[in-house]
């Protein structure tokens, strides 16, 4: 797999090794700013886990890993994933999301097809986003797998290009592929530059809660473990060459999410002296007024107004249903950030970067 030290990749590794304890997971990750070795602490001592520090653009390295470990399932998470960063500096997005995905496809083609290893059970699964479909109006039906691609940001355009390459390698060369396009994720190990962890960690530090534009942008949110279960279903049951949308029919405006988190944080601190002592800086939440930290800021350039996923195909073909309700998922997420303040503080002060290491090793 690629991108194991990132948000969704790390959740996938934990789930997979718990669920399939006999499987071996080989993780390739470049440990960019978004990759954090601490995300993998729970599996570092697992003998079935191998970590390799390297770049997906290094095709020779990928080929070597495929051969040496006889990898039959390549799950591809690695990406530059933050839309705001893609607006400031698109180059890294083109490099990793397009060239990097192509490098993986070339390596899989070489080892699985040209060296004759590909069996029915071999699979290249590409993890993608609903942002490839562009933006919806308020009355538009949600994105289905038949919706035409219309990406609007450098991030979504680079993911769209990677989706097309994956599809092309199936149709042209017969590589066994599947793709999943998921809505916005939230949950443990989410880098605190993204909306939900940013709001939680800023409340804990009594910092302003920035809301873009009028805050009425709509996203369809899914708890990260529900995404991981969806990927599992596609890997196990998805038809080769097909794409599956994964989502939970859970549309929220940004401002409503921020106010929900504020009210849950106010409740979380109410009558909890130990928590108040642990987070004395969270004075607005301690006073039951976290929402006073909300500040509207200039809107993101080209900000898509609404995303929404129609998950009927994955419901029907894969029997997929998300398990977590939004409020309980947000409560779990808040509790995770409260219990793991060392994790997010190390990101905020930059010390998490010291965990990067060279080479490949299993523990
Ligand atoms: P993330 O930014 O948290 O993690 C990305 C990981 O990829 C990091 O560990 C990073 O070190 C690694 N990486 C980046 N460039 C690399 C390279 N060139 N070579 C090797 N490793 C590299 O991302 P995420 O939020 O976990 O997203 C994972 C995947 O899921 C992405 O493909 C993303 O497009 C997709 N996705 C994300 C969401 C979401 O809400 N986060 C929703 C739908 C789809």
From TrEMBL:
<protein>
    <recommendedName>
        <fullName>dTDP-glucose 4,6-dehydratase</fullName>
        <ecNumber>4.2.1.46</ecNumber>
    </recommendedName>
</protein>
<dbReference type="InterPro" id="IPR016040">
    <property type="entry name" value="NAD(P)-bd_dom"/>
</dbReference>
<keyword id="KW-0520">NAD</keyword>
<feature type="domain" description="NAD(P)-binding">
    <location>
        <begin position="2"/>
        <end position="333"/>
    </location>
</feature>
<dbReference type="Pfam" id="PF16363">
    <property type="entry name" value="GDP_Man_Dehyd"/>
</dbReference>
<dbReference type="InterPro" id="IPR005888">
    <property type="entry name" value="dTDP_Gluc_deHydtase"/>
</dbReference>
<keyword id="KW-0456">Lyase</keyword>
<dbReference type="InterPro" id="IPR036291">
    <property type="entry name" value="NAD(P)-bd_dom_sf"/>
</dbReference>
<comment type="similarity">
    <text>Belongs to the NAD(P)-dependent epimerase/dehydratase family. dTDP-glucose dehydratase subfamily.</text>
</comment>
């Amino acid at each position: 797999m690629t991108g194991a030290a990132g948000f969704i990749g790390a959740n996938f590794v934990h789930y997979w090794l718990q669920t399939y304890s006999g499987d071996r997971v080989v993780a390739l990750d470049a440990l960019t700013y978004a990759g954090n070795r601490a995300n993998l602490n729970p599996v570092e001592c697992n003998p079935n886990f191998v970590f390799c520090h390297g770049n997906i653009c290094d095709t020779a390295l990928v080929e070597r890993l495929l051969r040496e470990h006889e990898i039959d399932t390549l799950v591809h998470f690695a990406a530059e994933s933050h839309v705001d960063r893609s607006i400031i500096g698109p180059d890294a997005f083109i490099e990793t999301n397009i060239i990097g995905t192509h490098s993986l496809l070339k390596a899989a083609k070489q080892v699985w097809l040209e060296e004759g290893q590909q069996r029915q059970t071999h699979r290249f699964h590409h993890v993608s986003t609903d942002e490839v479909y562009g933006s919806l109006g308020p009355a538009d039906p949600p994105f289905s797998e038949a919706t035409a691609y219309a990406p609007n940001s450098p991030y979504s355009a680079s993911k769209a290009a990677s989706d097309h390459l994956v599809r092309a390698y199936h149709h042209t060369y017969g590589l066994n592929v599947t793709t999943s396009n998921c809505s916005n994720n939230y949950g443990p190990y989410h880098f605190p530059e993204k909306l939900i962890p940013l709001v939680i960690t800023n409340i804990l530090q009594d910092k302003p809660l920035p809301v873009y534009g009028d805050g009425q942008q709509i996203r369809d949110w899914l708890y990260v473990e529900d995404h991981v279960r969806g990927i599992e279903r596609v890997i196990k049951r998805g038809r080769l060459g097909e794409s599956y949308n994964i989502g939970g029919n859970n549309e929220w405006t940004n401002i409503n999410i921020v106010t929900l988190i504020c009210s849950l944080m106010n409740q979380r601190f109410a009558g909890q002296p130990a928590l108040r002592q642990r987070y004395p800086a969270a004075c607005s939440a301690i006073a039951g007024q976290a929402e006073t930290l909300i500040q509207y800021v200039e809107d993101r350039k080209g900000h898509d107004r609404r995303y929404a996923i129609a998950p009927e195909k994955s419901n029907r073909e894969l029997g997929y249903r998300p398990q977590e309700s939004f409020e309980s998922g947000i409560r779990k997420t808040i509790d995770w950030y409260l219990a793991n303040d060392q994790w997010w503080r190390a990101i905020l002060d930059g010390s998490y970067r010291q965990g990067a290491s060279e080479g490949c090793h299993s523990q």
